[in-house]
Design goal:
heteropentamer; A: alpha+beta; six-stranded mixed sheet; five-stranded antiparallel sheet; 9 helices; E: alpha/beta; five-stranded mixed sheet; 34% helix; elongated; binds adenosine-5'-triphosphate; binds magnesium ion
Chain lengths: 352, 352, 279, 279, 236
Amino acid sequence: MAALSAHFTLPLRAFELELALAVESTVALVGPSGAGKTSVLRAIAGLVRPSSGRVALGDDVWFDAENGVSRPPEERRVGLVFQEYALFPHLSVRKNVAYAGGDRPDEYLERFRISHLADARPDELSGGERQRVALARALARNPDVLLLDEPFSALDAHTKSTVRAEVHELLGEFGLPTLIVTHDYEDASALAEEVGVIVDGKLRQLGTPQELVSRPSDEFVASFTGANLLRGSARREGDRLTRVELDTGESLFSTDVAEGVVGVVVYPWEVAVGRARVDDSALNVVSGEVGSVVEVGNRVRVRIGPLTAEVTASSAERLELARGGVAFATFKATGTRLVPLDGRGRPSATDP
Amino acid sequence: MAALSAHFTLPLRAFELELALAVESTVALVGPSGAGKTSVLRAIAGLVRPSSGRVALGDDVWFDAENGVSRPPEERRVGLVFQEYALFPHLSVRKNVAYAGGDRPDEYLERFRISHLADARPDELSGGERQRVALARALARNPDVLLLDEPFSALDAHTKSTVRAEVHELLGEFGLPTLIVTHDYEDASALAEEVGVIVDGKLRQLGTPQELVSRPSDEFVASFTGANLLRGSARREGDRLTRVELDTGESLFSTDVAEGVVGVVVYPWEVAVGRARVDDSALNVVSGEVGSVVEVGNRVRVRIGPLTAEVTASSAERLELARGGVAFATFKATGTRLVPLDGRGRPSATDP
Amino acid sequence: MGESARRGLFGIALFVASLLTFAFLALPLVAIFVHVPPGDLVAQLSNPVVTDALIVSLKTNLIAQVFILVLGTPTAYLLATRRFRGRALLVTLVELPLVLPPAVAGIGLLAAFGRFGLLGGTLRGLGITIPFTQTAVVFAVAFVASPLYIRQAIAAFEAVDANLVAASRTLGVGPAGTFFRVVLPLASGGLLAGEALSFARGLGEFGATIMFAGSLQRVTQTLPLAIYAEFDVDFDVTLAISAVLIVISGALLLSLKLATSWQPSRLTSRSRSELLSWS
Amino acid sequence: MGESARRGLFGIALFVASLLTFAFLALPLVAIFVHVPPGDLVAQLSNPVVTDALIVSLKTNLIAQVFILVLGTPTAYLLATRRFRGRALLVTLVELPLVLPPAVAGIGLLAAFGRFGLLGGTLRGLGITIPFTQTAVVFAVAFVASPLYIRQAIAAFEAVDANLVAASRTLGVGPAGTFFRVVLPLASGGLLAGEALSFARGLGEFGATIMFAGSLQRVTQTLPLAIYAEFDVDFDVTLAISAVLIVISGALLLSLKLATSWQPSRLTSRSRSELLSWS
Amino acid sequence: GGAAARQAGADGTRARVTVYAAASLTDVFPTIDPTAKYSFAGSNTLAAQITQGAPADVFASANMTIPNQLNAKNLVSKPIVFTRNALVVVVPTSNPANVKTVYDLKKPGTKLVVAGPTVPVGAYTVQVLRNMALSSVLQNVVSRETDVREVLAKVALGEADAGFVYSTDARTVPGKVKVLRLPAWAQPKVQYGISIVSASQNKAAARAFVNRVLGRAGQKRMIAAGFLQRVKPKGK
Ligand SMILES: Nc1ncnc2c1ncn2[C@@H]1O[C@H](COP(=O)(O)OP(=O)(O)OP(=O)(O)O)[C@@H](O)[C@H]1O
Ligand SMILES: Nc1ncnc2c1ncn2[C@@H]1O[C@H](COP(=O)(O)OP(=O)(O)OP(=O)(O)O)[C@@H](O)[C@H]1O
Ligand SMILES: [Mg+2]
Ligand SMILES: [Mg+2]
């Protein structure tokens, strides 16, 4: 399987999309709405023309600004699954899958377990079914690259996990170079070996899910991977610790090295909760009112002041978090990371 | 605060919406797309007229089929937040919030931290900001009931949790009777004391999140709360155990009592994973290929045959689940629940 | 309460205004049929003036519509899918005949294709004369009726979801294939509607025809011209012909309705209607 | 490769067809201006025939448009927001004049309001004569031009998101308030467009007017009628008047374009245009 | 509605008389009374409009038949002959079909334009041709216009090769058309009749106008415009 290599710049309304990617197995791009995710796929598929750069599959060049090469979409062997699936409403499921005239569409109907829907119209299908038809159609064109745009955003929360597992297995079977874009980090980490975080058209960080979680390059990546973020100003303390003065006045310690305005990143499952203050120099403590208490499976996500902590249902019971009141969130200095605050790309909903 | 009581039937295209509700504090309705959730709110707000039934706030009757009472929307004191927010695109944020002419809108702008956006047009706002404007607008009309339609569906995954916490706190402050509809069980359980599962216009089960998880009334509720579901036929075995013959041939034991075709419900966190078969009469064992392996925070959701299990990252490492191969999922007979299979309401994406 | 009172007033205002509109628009049509006993209506269909005019009208209009479809459709597609400098100007050009006094259109056609018109010399060189011939009628009709079709077609093409076109392209089907397999089927409703409108408008063409093609029974005298000619001879005949034309136009329009009935989003309109069922 | 070849052909076909269309539509207009030295164009504006006709046209059309707006808007809103039995029929009725030969419209108006018309007796009783007066012109214009406005208005009202109306209602604002504070502002673009079209169509009205109002200078002789009349007297004058009218209509249409330019979803059209920038 | 209607009539009532006159009088009548309001068209069309209740005060027709018919229906007063006219053939000055005499009109392919049979001049045309045994010429007709001025216009534009109009019309487009006279013996009796509309609100002014036309000054202008004496001078 030839790998897809794409580096280009594409002027969008509000900013310029600018990235370089090499897709061999499965890569996912995560980013907020309007980050330019769909535009990336459109550029690779040849639906928009970048202002500069190069897009090639192996040594088959699809786009090259220098040499004025720009193949139309129908001459690039891409399988693009659109955000809203873009099934042809006037054609039956079978006709949709057979549209590209690929060899034996019925095989694909079989494979995607939609044979029983062959004669239905798209508008009679459920979200999950639509999704499979769209995938089948894209693959029936037997492409050399697979591009998925928000493959799950149109699904109910409860069907999503099932579908996601299916898709994951299918991707395995076909083993095509695949580029997925989504705004849901969990989807991305579930499907891709490599995840890139894209904001305002720029790639903030590209790496394995583990890397993103263990070494987020900035506050935005951190918040995307589900971490808590506390703003403060850092000062070295001794040679191994950094002291961070929070805007709230409290101060935290981190084993990361940094100076000036930073964000302290700590993941909910690194945070322990208690009703009494523990005094342990190795532990950071943040106290606050108990906010929302959310049961997730057998665990409970509880908000304490600026922090979200994740504790077991049992300990939540023991601490009677449900009744509110003050609580103390504690986490190790080693459990924290410090990231620069460039002031950009903050999740808007948390703006002051 | 007077409570909202609503019981009515409303013929929809495909089925009849039929439910009875009493909302004193916060109730959430969960259901798949097309279940009739929005229609419930529309009926209560007076935007559609039920064919029969009664809607009243305390003893103030809004709708009563018998006595031909049917107040128009503007005469029911509801604060309805629409699925896509339905902000007036031609009005500034301030004008939107002031639309109902409620006393001092600026207070609400303050309270919802959108004063800095007062003069912006809705289309210049981020999802999270829109959401707060919509809430502010609905509350500025100072209503007696709050109705929220998919309050988070328009948000990026990563801003959602933050916003959800905010909303939860605001609901606390205002302490209005609130009815939320959503297709995301997690959202529902996060915000509401009582959660109802609605499918095809019928209320399947109404109870606290804990009740739904511990005693799902049917396969649909179970799958909605994130459980695994295995089909099989049950036969009593001794007086305490029930043996369930799975379609796959394997057989499981449950402490629940049932006969005939049933669904075996087991939650991912009740399932342990191993590479070797453990033989323990008290343990159910299901073996299968390791499918998708998804990291979620510090835990890993792994698919083994028909089951999804949730294990710690560390044990996932130890078992090298990532490399696939066969694995064994084990769970206690006491950890299972048996639900009747009415064949309806199965999450369509998992249809054969 | 004042609110509901005002609401009542609003509803009444709506109702009264609509009633007036409908009355004003219906009266003239009703009046004609009142004057014309069904018998006459049928009898007129054997009146040579009417039959000849009907034939001329149909023949010229069918030819004109063929041209409108064959040339107008690509034009509409171009205008709907391309953005370029001067596009607004071209759209205006395409719509201008719609708002131009037909008489002016006639003058224009004379000035362009008449003996001493811009192309007069060229045409004479080719031994072609257009004024006073059925060709002239076709020209007049095509000129006056095309905008109605092209406008609708542009709208119909613009309404086709761009993502479907994109999907077709990424599935390896070129622009042509995409046009015929995706765009055309999805736009067909709107195109049909536009075509019906355009055809009806063409059938009614009067000012431009009389100026550019003159009026000669069996050659260039279309139904509207016949009406005008008959007007001073026998008002009853005129009424009867009018009735015939109303029936034709009405039928066309209804077929149009059926062709497009599916277009407005059902849910939206339905729920809105419910919403306002009190006001 | 064959694909790209076919694509080339398709592009060329599109291009050629469009070129032909534009040429055909532009020629008559160009021709008129070729014949008319700009001097004449200005001179005509002081020709009493033209000025009288211009005054009559403007007066009658303005009155007609006031009626169309005042009565047509509620009618459109009713048809856009209510679903009831017979609605399709009423919509057809509203659109019929659009496809009716203007001459027939004139006959219909005569049959309704003429001396021997349905209401003839009643009107004479009230000492009112309508045919061949300026009132007749207003009637003719209103009858022929209203559909263009009402159709657009219906579309504009239907395009207003039902949820916004619902939101306004749940915020305690009744139907009337909602109409004026939400629906009207959001529909204004479409309404303006419709109004411009209707006004332009009215200015061009010919067939119905000559039938129902005759052509009496300073009373019922509108610009189109003046053109027709002058045609017999002095072709150059006719050309000049035509030029004047083309300029007016063109201006109207362009203003219309501007009024509606924002309407088609920008993103869609843009991305579509890019999508096809190869074909 | 009525308001506009009355007021429309009103600018007339102050002695402003409304005259419905045959198209061939388009140029001459305004010289006789510039203050009157005119509607020029085919006499037949005007008649139809008067029948439909058009607010005319005076009706001047290009023949006697039409006003007599209206008079029979008591729609207008008994028509008085106020002038006469003669029929001619006009051809474009460029004369593309090279028509020298009326007999050349027989040449097949000649584009001949005449007025409709209900229009006076159309009827006269048929008579002339019958008188000259040239009815076959009518096979060359390419259009039947709604009034004489339309015929003239089509010829003046050069679109038509020839057309039958009144000699007075021919004079209104000097240099644009050549006139082919028709033999006196073939000429039909072209008499113009003027009458007062019974429904006129404005009879006084109407009578005044008629007298003006019949009066010396009026007749002078008619003759100056090429019309003939009201009554044939008893040939010597
Ligand atoms: N062809 C284009 N030209 C100019 N600007 C564009 C184009 N397409 C999209 N944009 C703008 O570029 C930005 C990115 O759009 P895009 O659809 O790629 O974002 P996205 O990440 O896919 O968002 P979402 O998650 O909502 O789908 C948006 O602000 C959009 O308005
Ligand atoms: N006013 C109505 N009359 C008839 N049928 C309706 C009406 N409104 C909605 N429906 C239909 O009733 C069903 C429920 O619609 P509704 O919008 O309430 O579902 P929902 O649960 O809100 O779905 P989603 O989660 O996608 O918003 C749908 O099938 C819809 O087509
Ligand atoms: Mg996107
Ligand atoms: Mg909904």
